[in-house]
């Protein structure tokens, strides 16, 4: 099997630089070489040399097409870091430096050329680490790739220096990029998973080499997994808060695409509380053998309050068949100056009932499609919160930049998820000519299964106020005399609205301007029902009550 063209956009078939080929993501992700790991796995399981032949041809072809510092595959330190991680998995699973992959004169030539490229990768990453406003998941990924490479191939003079630098900075970033209660500070749950994958694979490489990371590092990972476990509903879904592009660090189980579940399974295996559940955990522990860390604790019960990270959960019967699980966003917009992957979603909420998505965060759709779609999916009208005077809470400065960021704060902290009584506000609309302050109260009563959401916009004069509620595709959403009725597979919900002059609209898949869309995966979108409630307000409350019952 000949190697695929390494610089061709697989979606368009156009070879060339990203300006010509389109979204560079399509080129980069193919060249992360997750698929090469699959070939090494196939050989490891079957012993069939045909898999090694295909692997040898693929690697040789890539090295020939992509000489050091030439072409798009050498322009991103993050992509090089991910490629090094997957190359290390291939190398280990294919038998290492003396394995059959490198048998004979041709094999020795391949090994020499591959090691030269590996060295060039490490050198480039070390010289071009993401700093300043880009020191987010990119920096974690670059450091993880550099660290794993120096453990797998400690064959050149700078390796020790690079290894020690990467370990030292990973220790720091594990603390800096995750809150004290385990939330990734990019405020994007997909990047929470992404960064955690990097931290785990680096930690496993350290364990395997006898250079374990500190207990503080493992505790940061433990808190990250605890938060992820807490926001996962009974159906295994994680709310799509913030940006997501479906990129992954490794794919050792192609049949399972639920990365949060795979990460939690691996965390459970590392905690030693049970045998590894799932293909990914077993393969990673095989590729990086070593003593399991003592610092990580067995899985804790799900939590509900993450005030440092900016999220609170409400509901009842967490983990049970009739679970009600809601998530309230009362945290910052994102991480560092540009907050690249955050959305204008202050005081937004999501809701899952009986393991079914109900009120949803519509996701991301695409980074590089028409700008109006990027602006919509990261804008306020795509989230279950309030928009004032038709403008977003925060001011965008481009596809990955916010110039002015709404700041949320909690005015009344709830005491439990079942008797949830919250009051908070944000200052995103204080920039208006008549400054306005959005105040939201959220109350949930477990005994009656009722959720009450009250919004006020405090200002001198009247403002146009729009409240949005997005419902998952697949739910039956209809208007009735009281407001809106929602039916799922195992539940029903009545939504009643009270507010002076409130106009209730049920919309779906509106194009101009975009409204009522849902994106479960990157560059894929579908219509969803959205309730839009509009009023003119100078401080009068707008109230929505959600009453949940089970079929």
Describe the structure.
The chain has helices spanning 18-21, 24-30, 34-46, 49-65, 77-93, 104-127, 137-152, 159-176, 189-208, 215-231, 259-271, 279-287, 371-378; strands at 305-306, 311-316, 324-329, 349-353, 356-359, 386-388, 395-398, 401-404, 408-412, 419-426, 437-445, 450-458, 463-470, 476-480, 483-487, 491-498, 503-508, 517-518, 526-527, 529-537, 542-550. It has an eight-stranded antiparallel beta sheet, with no helix packed on it. A five-stranded antiparallel beta sheet has the order 1-2-3-4-5, with helices on one face. The radius of gyration is 25 Å and the shape is elongated. The model has no long low-confidence stretch (mean pLDDT 92). It is an alpha+beta fold and 551 residues long. The longest helix is centred in the first third of the chain and has 24 residues, at 104-127. Helices cover 33% and strands 22% of the residues. It has three domains: 1-176, Chondroitin AC/alginate lyase (Glycosyltransferase, Alpha/alpha barrel); 189-194 and 211-303, no CATH class; 307-550, Distorted Sandwich (Beta-galactosidase, Chain A, domain 5), CATH 2.70.98.70. The chain contains 13 helices and 21 strands.
């Amino acid at each position: 099997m000949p190697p695929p063209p390494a610089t061709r956009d697989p979606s368009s078939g156009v070879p060339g630089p990203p300006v010509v080929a389109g979204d560079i993501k399509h080129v980069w992700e193919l060249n992360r070489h997750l698929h090469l790991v699959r070939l090494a796995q196939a050989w490891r399981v079957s012993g069939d040399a045909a898999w090694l032949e295909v692997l040898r041809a693929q690697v040789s072809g890539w090295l020939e097409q992509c000489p050091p510092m030439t072409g798009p595959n050498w322009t991103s330190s993050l992509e090089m870091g991910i490629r090094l991680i997957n190359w290390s998995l291939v190398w280990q699973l294919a038998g290492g430096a003396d394995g059959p992959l490198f048998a004979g004169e041709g094999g020795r030539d391949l090994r020499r050329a591959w090691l030269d490229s590996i060295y060039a990768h490490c050198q480039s990453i070390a010289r071009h680490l993401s700093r300043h406003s880009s020191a987010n998941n990119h920096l974690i990924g670059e450091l993880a790739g550099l660290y794993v490479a120096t453990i797998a191939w400690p064959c050149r003079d700078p390796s020790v220096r690079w290894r020690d630098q990467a370990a030292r900075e990973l220790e720091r970033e594990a603390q800096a990029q995750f809150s004290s209660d385990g939330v990734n500070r990019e405020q994007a749950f997909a990047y929470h998973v992404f960064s955690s994958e990097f931290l785990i694979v680096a930690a496993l490489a350290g364990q395997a080499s006898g250079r374990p990371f500190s207990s503080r590092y493992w505790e940061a990972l433990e808190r990250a997994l605890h938060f992820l476990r807490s926001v996962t509903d009974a159906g295994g879904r994680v709310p799509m808060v913030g940006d997501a592009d479906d990129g992954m660090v490794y794919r050792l189980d192609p049949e399972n695409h639920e990365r949060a579940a795979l990460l939690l399974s691996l965390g459970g295996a590392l905690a030693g509380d049970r045998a590894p559940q799932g293909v990914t955990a077993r393969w990673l522990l095989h590729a990086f053998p070593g003593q399991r860390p003592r610092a990580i604790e067995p899985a804790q019960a799900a939590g509900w309050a993450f005030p440092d990270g900016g999220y609170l959960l409400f509901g009842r019967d967490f983990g049970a068949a009739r679970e009600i699980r809601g998530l309230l966003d009362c945290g910052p917009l994102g991480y560092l100056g540009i907050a690249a992957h955050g959305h204008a979603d202050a005081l937004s909420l999501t809701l899952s009932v009986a393991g079914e998505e109900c009120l949803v965060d519509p996701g991301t759709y695409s980074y590089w499609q028409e700008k109006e779609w990027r602006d919509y999916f990261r804008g306020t009208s795509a989230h279950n919160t309030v928009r004032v005077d038709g403008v977003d809470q925060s001011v965008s400065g481009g596809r990955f930049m916010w110039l002015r960021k709404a700041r949320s704060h909690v005015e009344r902290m709830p005491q439990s998820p079942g008797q949830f009584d919250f009051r908070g506000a944000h200052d995103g609309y204080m920039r208006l000519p008549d400054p306005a302050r959005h105040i939201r109260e959220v109350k949930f009563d477990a005994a009656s299964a009722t959720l009450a959401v009250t919004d006020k916009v405090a200002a001198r004069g009247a403002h146009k106020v729009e409240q949005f509620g997005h419902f998952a595709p697949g739910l039956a959403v209809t208007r009735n005399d009281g407001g809106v009725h929602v039916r799922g597979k195992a539940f029903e919900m009545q939504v009643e609205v009270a507010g002076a002059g409130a106009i209730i609209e049920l919309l779906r898949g509106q194009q101009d301007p975009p409204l009522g869309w849902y994106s479960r995966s990157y560059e894929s979108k579908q219509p969803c029902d959205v309730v839009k409630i509009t009023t003119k307000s100078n401080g009068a409350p707008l109230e929505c009550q959600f009453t949940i019952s089970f079929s």
